[in-house]
Write a structure and sequence with these properties.
The chain has 797 residues and is mainly beta. The chain folds into 7 domains: 117 residues, Cadherins (Immunoglobulin-like, Sandwich); 97 residues, Sandwich (Immunoglobulin-like); 101 residues, Sandwich (Immunoglobulin-like); 98 residues, Immunoglobulin-like; 100 residues, Sandwich (Immunoglobulin-like); 119 residues, Cadherins (Immunoglobulin-like, Sandwich), CATH 2.60.40; 112 residues, no CATH class. It is 10% helix and 39% strand. The strands form 18 sheets. Strands 1-2-8-7-4 form a 5-stranded mixed β-sheet. It has a 4-stranded mixed β-sheet with strand order 9-15-14-11, with no helix packed on it. The longest helix is centred in the last third of the chain and has 32 residues. It is rod-shaped. The relative contact order is 0.05.
């Protein structure tokens, strides 16, 4: 029958409709339901489709260690997962509920759910002892009341103790008393005077009945002994004593002092104070009553959160054999103090975040509680201000930890967030709880070269395939986002692509030469290197590599003047025109290399007569060292070496034959083999020589004409005037276009010898430096015209 009634109650509570009030779903169920019992359809109440539950990660978040509730993801029904004992869960609290939170993603929604646990009458009233003894004097007048020990019933509301009954008799009845906490106690009421002589002992049954359906009850035996004689009972100063005391007072603190008086004399007036049987053992552990002085002191730890008021029943009993007791109440109100720090409960929604997470992304759900009352229970919560996170407070004592700024994994890969909560006490009490949030990488950093441009110095004649340089790039991202691949961007260089010059190792950035480079053909080139990561989408960066080709001494000097034939040259000289220091010829050589590799020096290796010639070490000028003698041979042979300054030194040699003429009828630089044309003697040289010869001849005729005219004016006896115009020879070389004699450098031309000879000097005009033609002008003659006249007169004599 009890089971049937229990089922009836259960179905009555199930019909209480769930409602969504201010965003919160409320259900009500009775306690003691079996596993799988229906609570409510949360999917229907939240207007969610059943197929969305798994897709949106539908989950139930509970603050309790035990998982009392669970949700069936197939139909959205909230059911009982574990049997709920209301008395164990909420103890003596007047209200009892389970606070849950339902979370769904995409988008994230948090729905608080409150399941109110209703009490069922599953506990019977129970007395601490099965038998109580009570002594009452026969002189006590009707109407006297005697407190009885209350029964205990852990149920609440209507299911707790509602009434007391005593077995039928003509002397005693029951008087019910209501306490401040809503509980009820029983007092034994003397309705008819006692006569010890008629009946000295009464055996009564006290029954405690609760208000549940069906009723439950508990009984105890009361044995009343009727005492004889003493007709005055002790009287207290107050029927009710009141006291207030803070919950954190020290042990031994005085609560109050009770006092009673007795009109009797002797031992009947001597009183002993004590607690009545109504005072439980728990309260006896908190308070101590001095039996002689009536002082009530604290002897345990008081807790406002456990009970905010204590009701102590005290009595003063005469020390006589048949002593009578007087009764009073002591009401002790407990004053709350701030002795409880806030409690933090953190539920992590996600312990990892992408660094591109949008502001407002939920990280954790936080609930706070404080058992203290009033301002002491007012809780504030915060996180440090120097992090990109903040707290939002959608519901009282409930917070959401969300992102509040831009995350950068490269700056802070992990955030250790300390959540702090403090109450309104003075001083406040606080609680902290750390959580750790990791930031995952996204590809937000492009590879970065150590330099925007690199200069590479490469010696020519390098080995193809050898590494010439290595570029380095860094990427602050991780894994694939930080994996760098190198490549060379295509660009045209001298009609060739970059890949025809170099190649690169895509993993480590080593640059290799594809070909051997020649400084004389190409002195530098430029390539563009790209570093690209493996992110999605990939990011890249570029750097410029300037490759400078360094010269190597790989070209021997080449003699370009005088003109060579089989590494030899021939020069004719006239003895009459030469003196020590006279420039016979100048050896000109070129070197395709540069710098020290092209710095040339000239050295005389062999000579028919080494004392006859000197060679300029750096200039290559061959000069006459002394006067020619009759014993000197007609043909002098010189072997010259031209060396560069490279390492190792390269050189070229040439042999020059000097022919000493007995008469000066031929030009000094006329080659002996005039009929042979050199391979280096081109059409342009022929053209220039033709022009030079024609121009020279034209100016020579003019000069001779002017000289003759002048001589005729100075001396009428001059019959023949002939002159030889001598001039330094011009180089006969391949660089004739590049070097000309200076404007004031004399040109010497030799005419066939006459009986009498005169010498005149002409110089190059400044206009010659601006043209491919040679312009001559008169300059200071070697001999003055007066001397010429004297010499001519002497000749006539």
């Amino acid at each position: 029958m009890a089971s049937a009634l229990m089922s009836g109650v259960y179905f009555i509570f199930l019909f209480s409709a769930s409602d969504l009030i201010s965003g919160q779903i409320r259900y009500s169920i009775p306690e003691e339901l079996e596993h799988g019992a229906f609570v409510g359809n949360v999917a229907e109440d939240l207007r969610l489709n059943v197929w969305e539950l798994s897709a949106r990660n539908f989950r139930l978040v509970s603050d309790h260690i035990k998982q009392y509730m669970e949700v069936n993801l197939e139909n959205g029904i909230l059911f009982v997962n574990e049997r709920i004992d209301r008395e164990q869960l909420c103890r003596q609290s007047s209200t009892c509920s389970l606070s849950l939170q339902i979370a769904v993603d995409n988008p994230l929604e948090i729905h608080p759910v409150s399941v109110k646990i209703l009490d069922v009458n599953d506990n019977s009233p129970r007395f601490t002892k099965s038998e109580f003894s009570l002594q009452i004097s026969e002189l006590i007048a009707p109407g006297a009341r005697f407190p009885l020990e209350s029964a205990l019933d852990p149920d609440m509301g209507t299911n707790t103790i509602n009434s007391y009954q005593i077995s039928p008799n003509e002397h005693f009845g029951i008087k019910l008393q209501s306490r401040r906490d809503g509980s009820k106690s029983a007092e034994l009421l003397l309705e008819k005077s006692l006569d010890r002589e008629q009946q000295s002992i009464f055996n009564l049954v006290l029954t405690a009945i609760d208000g549940g359906i069906p009723h439950r009850s508990g009984t105890a035996q009361i044995i009343i002994t009727v005492l004889d004689a003493n007709d005055n009972a002790p009287l207290f100063d107050h029927e009710i004593y009141r006291a207030k005391i803070a919950e954190n007072v020290a042990e031994g603190t005085l609560v109050t002092t009770i006092n009673a008086a007795d009109l009797d004399e002797g031992t009947n007036a001597e009183l002993t104070y004590s607690f009545t049987n109504h005072v439980s053992q728990r309260m006896r552990g908190l308070f101590k009553l001095d039996p002689e002085t009536g002082e009530i002191r604290v002897q345990g730890v008081l807790d406002f959160e456990a009970s905010n008021v204590y009701e102590l029943d005290v009595q003063a009993v005469e020390n006589a054999l048949d002593g009578i007791a007087g009764h009073a109440k002591v009401m002790v109100d407990i004053i709350d103090t701030n002795d409880n720090a806030p409690e933090l409960d953190v539920t992590l929604v996600s312990s990892t975040l992408r660094e591109d997470a949008r502001p407002g992304t939920v990280i954790a759900l936080i609930s706070v509680a404080d058992p203290d009352s009033g301002e002491y229970g007012h809780i504030q919560c915060q996180v440090p201000g120097n992090i990109p996170f903040k707290l939002e407070n959608p519901l009282r004592n409930n917070y959401k930890l969300v992102t509040d700024g831009i995350l950068d994994r490269e700056m802070a890969p992990v955030y250790n967030i300390t959540i702090s909560a403090w109450d309104g006490g003075s001083p406040p009490l606080s609680t902290t709880k750390p959580i750790s949030v990791s930031v995952t990488d996204v590809n937000d950093n492009a590879p970065r070269f150590t330099q925007s441009s690199y200069n590479v110095y490469l010696m020519e004649n390098n080995t193809p395939g050898a590494s010439i340089f290595a570029v380095t790039a860094l990427d602050a991202d991780l894994y694939q986002n930080g994996k760098i691949t190198f490549s060379i961007l295509e660009n045209q260089m001298q009609e060739l692509s970059a890949s025809d010059y170099v190649t690169i190792n895509s993993k480590i950035g080593n640059i290799y030469a594809v070909r051997s480079f020649d400084y004389e053909q190409q002195k530098h080139f430029q390539i563009k290197v790209q570093a690209r990561d493996a992110g999605s989408p990939p990011l890249s960066n570029t750097a410029i590599v300037n490759v400078v080709i360094l010269d190597q001494n790989d070209n021997a000097p080449v003699i370009v003047s005088p003109s060579m034939w089989n590494s030899s040259a021939s020069v004719e000289i006239v003895p009459q025109s030469m003196y020590p220091g006279y420039l016979l010829t100048k050896v000109i050589a070129t070197d395709a290399d540069s710098g020290q590799n092209a710095r040339l020096s000239y050295q005389l290796l062999e000579a028919t007569d080494p004392s006859l010639f000197t060679v300029g070490l750096l200039s290559g000028e061959i000069k006459l060292n002394r006067h020619l003698l009759d014993k000197d041979i007609i043909t002098e042979r010189l072997v010259l070496c031209v060396k560069d300054n490279g390492q190792p030194t390269l050189s070229s040699t040439t042999t020059i034959f000097f022919s000493i003429l007995s008469i000066v009828t031929e030009k000094p630089y006329e080659r002996t083999e005039t009929s042979r044309e050199s391979e280096d003697f081109g059409d342009v040289n022929r053209y220039l020589i033709t022009i030079l010869g024609s121009t020279s001849f034209f100016f020579l005729v003019i000069i001779i004409f002017l000289i003759v005219l002048k001589l005729k004016q100075d001396s009428t006896n001059a019959k023949h005037v002939s002159g030889t115009v001598c001039c330094d020879r011009r180089r006969n070389s391949n660089d004739a276009f590049n070097r000309r004699p200076g404007p004031n450098e004399p040109l010497h031309y030799t005419e066939p010898a006459q009986t009498k000879d005169y010498r005149y000097t002409v110089c190059l005009s400044p206009e010659s430096s601006k043209s491919d033609f040679l312009f001559l002008k008169p300059c200071q003659p070697t001999l003055p015209f007066n001397d010429l006249a004297v010499r001519d007169t002497n000749a006539n004599k």
